[in-house]
Each structure stands twice: as structure tokens, then as C-alpha cells.
User: What shape does this take?
Amino acid sequence: MNKTMIALATAAVFAAGLAQAADPDAYVDYRKATMGAVGGHMKAMATRMKAGLDVPDDTALHATAIAGILESFPAAFPEGTAGVGKTKAKDAIWANMDDFKAKSTKGAEAAKALAAAAESGADMSEIGAKLGDLGKACKGCHEDYKSK
Assistant: This one.
């Protein structure tokens, strides 16, 4: 539970600081940093599982961090930041904000399901399936809202 609270508190602090940023380029930097963090968490979980590494199983920690990031992620796309800076974010995000928020929520829910499975002591096949679900949720959003 403490890991969950730390991840959520960290996301809240970043979101609060983000809301005060006046520079639209800061939003782009924030978005890149948070997606980099999500990617790092995903890679850590996948590498550990695929390679069978003898390291602590922090799957729940990684998944909880991803959920916290994705829950607040749409706030990083306020009006006036479309087309700002060097970014792969498509303008479709702002044109379809409700769908973008729904897909971010779907990703957060998939991450929470993965964390719950890991915390419950589920076997590796179930955890792997939940990681796959999270990957599909990420891909679904990227297909519509991220340029290649």
C-alpha cells in the first residue's frame, strides 16, 4: 500500500507543478518525460519476465506507477499546446479529448489490474497476460494519437 501511495503522491506533485507552468514547451517536456517513465517501467517488467531475472519482483510497483501517470496524463495536453515544440503528439488529441481521456483511463485500469494480479501472487502466465493487456491499451492510444 505504501508503494501505491508514494506513486500517487509523486504523480500529484508533478501534476500540480505542471498546472502552474505557463510555458507551452514545458508541457511537451513533461509529456516526453512521463512517457519515458512509462516506457521504462514497461521495459523493466517485460525484461524481468522474459529473461527470468533473479531480481525482486516489483511488477506491482511498476504497474502502480504507470497507473498513476496515465490517470493524470490528459492534463498535460491543455488547450494551446497542440503543435508546440518537437513532439509526436497528433493534433487529433485536442480534437478528440474525450476519447483520448478514455484511452488513458483504459490504460490506467489495465495497469491497476496488472498490479492487483502481481500483488495477489498470480502465476506468471496471468501476470504476462495482464502485461499484454496493458501493452494493447498503450498501443491503442498510440495508434490514434502518436505520430511515428
